[in-house]
Design brief:
With about 160 residues, the chain is of the alpha+beta class. It has six helices and seven strands, in the order βαααβββαβαββα. The chain has a single domain, classed as Gcn5-related N-acetyltransferase (GNAT) (Aminopeptidase). The chain is about 35% helix and about 30% strand.
């Protein structure tokens, strides 16, 4: 596995969009197929515009990615085939240790994501009824606990 920050993203947008679609279909059961297709039109722009974009590769193929803006992890998606192998935890360690990230926002209807972040030391500090596009998908805003770095270093 190779993990690196990617500055030029244009060349890998298609394989990353495929990772995004697979991940969303496996975790975001509250979205209809039509909604996934509609949202996927905006995803490449998000890839291009997030300040820090970190990609995990296996056999030179992207299998996971994370975007960071300031202290916030804006996105983290992992190919379902690769979930449960520590890639997400490694990406979060990089976000915290190398970029100073300590916040994340997850869909309330994605309990797998919430549990993952709680396991790594994050806690919910705020909830909104709507997502950032105004859709009726509640968001949970999570912050890293003070001891979160200690928890991450235990693994």
């Amino acid at each position: 596995m190779e993990i690196k920050e990617v500055k030029q993203r244009t060349e890998i947008i298609e394989p990353l969009l495929e990772v995004w679609q697979k991940s969303v279909r496996s975790t975001h059961h509250f979205l209809s197929e039509e909604e996934i297709v509609t949202i996927s039109q905006y995803v490449p722009s998000a890839f291009e515009n997030v300040p820090h974009f970190i990609v995990s590769y296996e056999e030179q193929k992207p299998v996971a990615f994370m975007g960071i803006d300031g202290e916030r992890i804006e996105m983290l998606f992992i190919d379902p085939i690769c979930q449960g192998r520590g890639i997400g935890k490694k990406l979060i360690q990089i976000a915290i240790q190398d970029y100073g990230a300590n916040e994340v926002c997850v869909n309330e209807q994605n309990p797998q994501a919430k549990g993952f972040y709680e396991h790594l030391g994050f806690h919910v500090y705020k909830r909104s009824e709507y997502d950032e596009q105004g859709n009726p998908y509640p968001l949970l805003y999570m912050k890293l606990d003070i001891n979160g770095n200690d928890l991450l270093n235990q693994y």
